[in-house]
Amino acid sequence: MWRPFFQQYHLIIVQDGDPNKIIKVPEGFDYELYNRNDINRILGPKASCISFKDSACRCFGYMVSKKKYIYTIDDDCFVAKNPSGQDINALEQHIKNLLCPSTPFFFNTLYDPYRDGADFVRGYPFSLREGVPTAVSHGLWLNIPDYDAPTQLVKPRERNTRYVDAVMTIPKGTLFPMCGMNLAFNRELIGPAMYFGLMGDGQPIGRYDDMWAGWCMKVICDHLGWGVKTGLPYIWHSKASNPFVNLKKEYKGIYWQEELIPFFQSATLPKDCTTVQKCYIELSKQVRAKLGKVDDYFLKLADAMVTWIEAWDELNPSGGELVLNGVGK
Ligand SMILES: O=c1ccn([C@@H]2O[C@H](COP(=O)(O)OP(=O)(O)O[C@H]3OC[C@H](O)[C@H](O)[C@H]3O)[C@@H](O)[C@H]2O)c(=O)[nH]1
Ligand SMILES: [Mn+2]
User: Fold this and answer.
1) 237 CA: nearest ligand 1 atom
2) Looking at residue 328, what is its pLDDT?
3) What is the rounded CA–CA span in Å between residue 233 and residue 42?
4) Quick one: average pLDDT of 6-35?
5) How far, in Å, CA of 136 to CA of 184, rounded?
6) What is the model's pTM?
7) Mind listing the pLDDT tens digit for each residue in 251-277?
8) With 60 as the cut, is the pLDDT of residue 233 above it?
9) Distance (Å) from CA 148 to ligand 2 centroid
10) Is the C-beta atom of 249 inside 6 A of ligand 1?
11) Is Disulfide bond set as a keyword in this record (predicted)?
């Protein structure tokens, strides 16, 4: 199904679980395939920051990519159809979202003002109409919605049939639950912040990989003045994962997040944090200082955040650090 939309791009496949299992990639794709052995070989001891047996492992692909834009998708997501019955080219829409500015400082009630047939509405300050660079494009899902285990348990048959034809900028200062199922981002802008954390095997939590990345990313985008959009495109999410297995993985996250959200909502980064790497290291210090008392896990996570940046900079020696306004480094 994806061939018409993926064939022209470079694929990075991150294989989780047993590295001896052979993944068969169909003919005609330009791809790299990495399993756990590859991750250990490439990162050595720093491989400790890449999760095992959790979707968090996907962020290794972001680190090794040499591309400007990244699109990440789950292996149970397929091409959806829009209300006119046409196949949705999710990549095309994500790229449009990323190439058009965002408007985080003032909400446009007619949604995406840069879209054909829309604009800024009356009362929208002209000084803000240039917008800011878009770092992340968060797509949505038809059929199986991305619900947590408790919600899925009480609403096992709920399906998302509502196609909302809109793209919105998430306002500055507002966090959101970033889902990694249908997500695109500008790697050159925000790549180093897209660490999906320590999840899965050997960890007390799972399935909060994209949530953790989304909260860190949004704080850094707000600080650096970049935008995050949500809405179109849709993909078709084909299967629901097991809510009982999910509950075991995510239950700590369900109560920890009541302390994590206030932490991220009040997190501020100093002016001298002019690159994503500096922002991320500063955030890791605040995680250690303020979340270590929630659970020792966050001390490990704070260390892993530093290891991630070290590994990122090792694999991307050009520094790749975007120096803002010529300051910093
Ligand atoms: O041990 C694992 C388990 C899963 N994956 C990969 O993660 C993707 C999501 O898995 P799945 O589709 O089974 O779960 P969902 O509930 O639909 O996923 C949502 O919640 C977890 C993640 O945050 C995900 O992004 C969300 O969509 C899928 O590609 C599995 O192959 C894994 O690599 N290792
Ligand atoms: Mn799924």
Assistant:
1) 17
2) 38
3) 34
4) 97
5) 6
6) 0.96
7) 999 999 999 999 999 999 999 999 999
8) yes
9) 12
10) no
11) no
Q: Which residues pair with 102 in a beta bridge?
A: 132
Q: Is the CB of 76 under 6 A from ligand 1?
A: yes
Written as one letter, the residue type at 141 is W
pLDDT class of 24 with cuts at 50, 70, 90: very high
Alpha-carbon span 95 to 235, nearest angstrom: 15
Check residue 54 and give its pLDDT.
96
What pLDDT shows up at residue 326? Answer: 43
**Ligand 1 close to Cβ of residue 15 (< 6 A):** no
- Could you give the CA distance from residue 138 to residue 97 in angstroms, rounded to a whole number? 9
Q: What angle do CA 19, 21, 25 make, to 5 degrees?
A: 105
Three-state secondary structure string covering 146-211: CCCHHHHHHCCCCCECCCCCCEEECCCCCCCCCCCCEEEEEHHHHHHHCCCCCCECCCCCCCCHHH
pLDDT at 322 over 70: no
Let me know the angle formed at the C-alpha of 212 by 91 and 220, rounded to the nearest 5 degrees. 80
Is residue 132 helix, strand or coil? strand
Residue 319, pLDDT score = 54
Measured in degrees and rounded to the nearest 5, phi and psi for residue 126 equal: -65, -30
Instruction: Compute the distance between CA of residue 241 and CA of residue 129 in angstroms, rounded to an integer.
Output: 42
Whole-number Å distance between alpha carbons of 181 and 152: 17
Our answer on whether the CB atom of 148 is closer than 6 Å to any ligand 1 atom is no
DSSP code at position 102 = B
Ligand 2 centroid, distance to 115 Cα (angstroms): 30
User: Which ligand is located closest to the Cα atom of residue 180?
Assistant: 1
Which residue stretches of the chain are H helix? 3-6, 36-43, 59-64, 90-99, 149-154, 187-190, 209-224, 243-266, 276-291, 297-315
Residue 318's pLDDT band (cuts 50, 70, 90): confident
On average, the pLDDT of the chain sits at 96
Mean pLDDT on 210-239: 98
Work out the burial of residue 1: count CB atoms within 10 Å of its CB; fewer than 13 is exposed, 13-18 middle, 19 or more buried: exposed
